[in-house]
Write a structure and sequence with these properties.
Radius of gyration: 36 Å
Distance between the termini: 84 Å
Largest sheet: none
Number of strands: 0
Number of helices: 6
Structural class: mainly alpha
Order of helices and strands: HHHHHH
Helix content: 55-70%
Strand content: under 5%
Length: 146
């Protein structure tokens, strides 16, 4: 009468194969003082081998889950990323150009970029330095970029 909590698996070795002959020699001469049984030794060996693979494709379930998780990037995603980068670079150039036109170094406020920082830098520079002439062409370009 078979117990419901025990599963039997058969394991055969071909002694014509060098690797399987070595495994048979190890199993036949297994030190029972160290290892409880051949069955436990095989279980420990398979468990160690499986754990060393981690989440790689050792099991069918893992491979199927991996395929579902993999996604391809779409053109629309790339267009969105491209647009975000374009806007960030544009804002950065406006800030740097506004600061350069004001005769000062570019000052960045943490977390805020864009027109408000440019206006603040321009006001601070204009209040402290009124001797420099402003180039109307450059000012027009800055205003068109914003």
């Amino acid at each position: 009468m078979a117990k419901s909590n025990i599963v039997n698996r058969s394991y055969r070795l071909n002694l014509d194969d060098e690797q399987q002959r070595r495994v048979n020699k190890v199993l036949a001469g297994l030190n029972k003082d160290i290892h409880k049984s051949v069955n436990q030794f095989i279980t420990d060996a398979i468990d160690f081998y499986a754990n060393s693979f981690g989440d790689e494709s050792l099991l069918r379930e893992t491979e199927e889950r991996k395929k579902k998780e993999e996604e391809y990037i779409l053109r629309s995603d790339l267009d969105g990323i491209r647009e975000e980068l374009k806007n960030e670079v544009k804002n950065e150039i406006i800030i740097l150009l506004g600061a350069a036109l004001g005769g000062g170094a570019a000052r960045m406020a943490e977390g805020s970029m864009g027109r408000t920082v440019t206006e603040t830098v321009a006001k601070e520079t204009a209040a402290g330095n009124t001797e420099e002439d402003t180039d109307p062409t450059m000012m027009e370009l800055v205003e068109n970029w914003g």
